Amino acid sequence: MAPTVEIAIPTTSLSPTSPPHTVYHITLRLPLRSFTVSKRYSDFSAFHASLITQTSEPPPVSLPSKSWFSNTVSNQSFREDRRRGLEEYLQAINESPDGRWRTSSAWRTFLNLPTAAVASSNGAKNTSNRLHAAITDPGSASNGQITDPTLWLDYHRDMKTHLHDARLQLSRRDQETIPSKQHESSAQAKSSLVRAGTMLGHLEEGLRTLSSRGSQPGQSPSSSLGEGELRRRKDLLINARKEKDGLEDLLQAMATKTRLDSAVAAMPDKDKEELFGKLDSASNGRRTPARPGRVLGKETERTRELDNQGVLQLQKQTMQDQDQSVDELLKIIIRQRELGQAIHEELEVHNDLLRLADEDTDRLKAKLDVGKKRIGKIS
């Protein structure tokens, strides 16, 4: 049976650390997505030891040995030989009829594989088929499996891939100058957004089912989720919904701008000059207003429907209203000044009273001191 995961190490690179080391970029292709994992040789060595410990059996191909007389940083030929050897090492495990190494936790952890990709041969095939059915035909009967926690995460990853594709298409559409290319990018972005919206709906339904399972006693841990994980997945859906809505708004804005540009481009030159004004070569290509004294873009709802005489009358009325407002403001300021002066006078009176109270206190204190001396002499 063909493996459900395709593994290759197409490239290597040197790390920016000091001292540098070689990084091997492992490409993994699953039935519905692809990703890359970066490892160094010491990671392979630790993985090899862990794999033998868990399975009690060495893999079908030996790990390329460590060299004490050469290194992969300075020797490009040696680096290429080790890349090829590590690729054969992983491919031998992945394609071996004996699946004991692929079902170990060391294999899954090293390659960052989801649980569905490292199940047994029949189980992996069934899980892959379920996920493929859930993504290609969400309305089918097999879509009930979307409530599986692992399948839910894979479905969410594929939904995020559609959002990423839509963002890339919108960026490409913004850079295109040919209308046909712009339309093609917009269509692809809209298709990805529609697909992502459908998948979001099924993810929300599946999460509601998982929540109800968690509240029912007697459910197995594999079929239900804890409160913390449910909140995390709800946050994932909220963020994905916001991202999708933002991309849809961006697509709508781009479409509106395209329609406006097309409408302006289709207008006769006479209408353009009447609307935007004429190009003035003496002012570095700027347009002179079509109507003297009335500049397009600076009109308001009150002036747009008035002629010049009406605008003048409106301006006079506005200035009169402003003068009246200034007069009212002046009266308020005068009143505030009078209040301030009254408060100042009141404070001076209070200061005088406090000063008299201090003097009375000093006199009383002096009398008390004299009384104490006399009492002391009598006693």
Automatic annotation (TrEMBL):
Residues 2-117 form the PX domain. Residues 211-227 have a biased composition (Low complexity). Pfam families: PX. Its main location: other. Keywords: Coiled coil, Vacuole. GO terms for cellular component: fungal-type vacuole membrane. Residues 316-378 form the T-SNARE coiled-coil homology domain. Essential for proper morphogenesis of the vacuole. May exist as structural reinforcement on the surface of the vacuolar membrane and be required for maintenance against rupture by osmotic pressure. This is PX domain-containing protein.
